[in-house]
Design brief:
Blueprint lengths: L10 E4 L2 E7 L37 H19 L2 H7 L2 E9 L16 E10 L4 E9 L5 E10 L2 E7 L2 E7 L3 H9 L3 H10 L4 E6 L3 E7 L5 E7 L5 E10 L3 E15 L3 E11 L2 E13 L12 E2 L19 E4 L2 E3 L10 E4 L4 E4 L6 E2 L6 E2 L8 H13 L5 E5 L5 H4 L2 H6 L3 E4 L4 H9 L16 E3 L4 E4 L4 E5 L1
Parallel strand pairs: 2-27, 8-16, 20-23, 23-24, 24-25
Antiparallel strand pairs: 1-2, 3-4, 3-15, 4-5, 5-6, 6-7, 7-8, 9-10, 10-11, 11-12, 12-13, 13-14, 14-15, 17-18, 18-19, 19-20, 21-22, 26-27
Length: about 475
């Protein structure tokens, strides 16, 4: 994942020594900018807050569920019932707009709005129960990231990466829930699921403008549903996601500019999302058409590789991590998290680690999907600390170098602080680290014991060395 800061790292053998150079820089600002939410996202409601007044307070749970269901069914009928989707057959939706990754604590400028070009494509095959999503994101350096995920059956998924050209097929029972999360991005499919979950619906508020319904999803998430009372259209879906750098944060998907599509019904030609008060995506649908089945297979010539993901057991555990020596006294640690192999440098009397990996939510689904679900968000780094301690039982973990403040690289910092490591990072990263240490879930103890933070801001050249090893950290 690209950092918002310039980063260059090298580990080069020099006799018995190795040199590692890391560039760290401060983000411009960590303050939240005052920006207006996109059209359709201005009226938001927290799904965990239930405010029932007047006659609604007298409804029994069954009556509340029945009235909520009537509104959901009305919206589904107005927009196009599931039978309409089935008759229409496979269809493809293309959209263009912007993505501001700073809203989720990622991107080039975390502290200020930095929207970039973004393209999204969906293919839905209702009869076969298949759905695919593809996106193309322009990075801050002018390059592009293009990726596709296709759910081919109850337990079958295909990832397609376009650069380098790879296809990654996999089977797992967890794909049932992953597919549902993606299907909720299509308003018709989201409403159809709510009809099937009628007993879990509750009517939260009802007036002449907006009807608010709450739904309990299979994973326990409470989903807020906003329906246009006058037109009977789905306007927004809201839930609470845990962002390790921000804590519990409200995420809202909004839908607007409904237009008729022949044979399909009404479809939103504007949609987007907000994270907290920050706009995240703002998209315009360019086409809705039949077809798109080619998205369920990998293009010819793409190299097939197995899924690279920690093999978790039902108990939430995983095989022990092993350090792989790539140069003398320089190690990588594969398997900590999918797509992540942290660096460890061993000195004669202590050890240095680079980055504190954590899972992070992928906001392209409803609710967000964790990249690597874990018992607590600092679990991946706690496993890494245990592996380093096991490999070097007589050498303390003295330093943790944080390359940048994206939560997938800094989210597990509590495990390293608990082990006694001094954190080396850009000065502006310190508030993020302090915020993480104040949250529960950073370690197995749940934050009951919070050791003192030892933090060293890197503003000039910082050298860590002994007789056989030299490591330089540059701002």
């Amino acid at each position: 994942m690209k950092s918002e800061w310039t980063r260059r790292s090298s580990v080069l053998p020099r006799g018995l020594a190795a040199v590692a150079t890391l560039f760290l820089a401060c983000p411009a600002c960590w303050a939240r900018p005052a920006s207006e939410a996109p059209l359709g996202a201005r009226e938001r409601f927290p799904p965990r807050t239930i405010e029932i007044g007047g006659s609604l307070s007298e409804l029994s749970e069954a009556e509340s569920a029945a009235r909520a269901l009537s509104w959901v069914e009305r919206a589904l009928t107005t927009m196009g019932a599931p039978e309409t989707l089935a008759r229409f057959g496979p269809f493809e939706v293309t959209a263009t707009g912007t993505l501001d990754k700073s809203a989720e604590g990622q991107g080039f400028a975390v502290g200020s709005a930095s929207p970039g070009p973004y393209e999204e494509l969906f293919v839905v095959d209702p009869a076969a129960g298949r759905i695919a999503r593809e996106y193309r994101e322009e990075r801050y350096d002018g390059t592009f990231e293009a990726f596709r995920e296709a759910y081919l059956g109850p337990d079958e998924r295909l990832y397609v990466v376009h650069d380098p050209p790879l296809s990654i097929p996999a089977r797992s029972p967890r794909f049932v829930e992953e597919r549902r999360r993606l299907e909720r991005r299509i308003p018709h499919l989201a409403l159809a699921e709510l009809v099937d979950r009628a007993p879990q619906l509750r009517l939260i508020a009802e007036d002449s403008a907006v009807v608010r319904v709450q739904a309990a999803l299979p994973d326990g998430t409470l989903l807020g549903v906003g329906i246009d009372a006058e037109r009977g259209l789905l306007r927004r879906l809201t839930y609470v996601a845990h962002l390790s750098a921000k804590g519990d944060t409200e995420v809202t998907w909004w839908f607007d500019d409904y237009r008729p599509v022949e044979g399909l019904g009404l479809f939103p030609f504007r949609y987007g999302s907000t994270v907290g008060a920050r706009p995240h995506t703002d998209m315009t649908v360019r086409s809705v058409s039949s077809g798109g089945l080619e998205r369920f297979t990998a293009p010819g010539g793409y190299r097939q590789i197995p899924e690279q993901r920690p093999d978790e057991t039902e108990a939430g555990q995983a095989p022990s991590l092993e350090l792989e020596e790539v140069f003398p006294n320089v190690f990588r640690v594969p398997g900590v998290r999918s797509g992540f192999a942290p660096l460890v440098v061993a000195f004669e009397e202590f050890v240095v680690a680079v980055d504190a990996p954590a899972s992070f939510p992928m906001l392209g689904k409803i609710p967000a999907e964790e990249t690597d679900p874990a018992p607590f968000f600092g679990w991946h780094s706690e496993r890494l600390v245990e592996a380093v301690t096991r490999a070097f039982p007589d050498r303390p973990l003295r330093y943790l170098i944080l390359t940048h403040a994206h939560e997938d690289h800094v989210g597990g910092v509590a495990a390293f602080v608990a082990a006694g490591a001094t954190v080396l990072a850009a000065p502006a990263v310190r508030p993020v680290v302090e915020r993480l240490l104040a949250l529960p879930g950073g370690t197995r103890s749940g934050g009951q014991e919070r050791p003192a933070l030892h933090f060293e801001g890197i503003e000039g050249r910082r050298v860590i060395a002994d007789d056989g090893q030299r490591l330089e950290v540059l701002p």
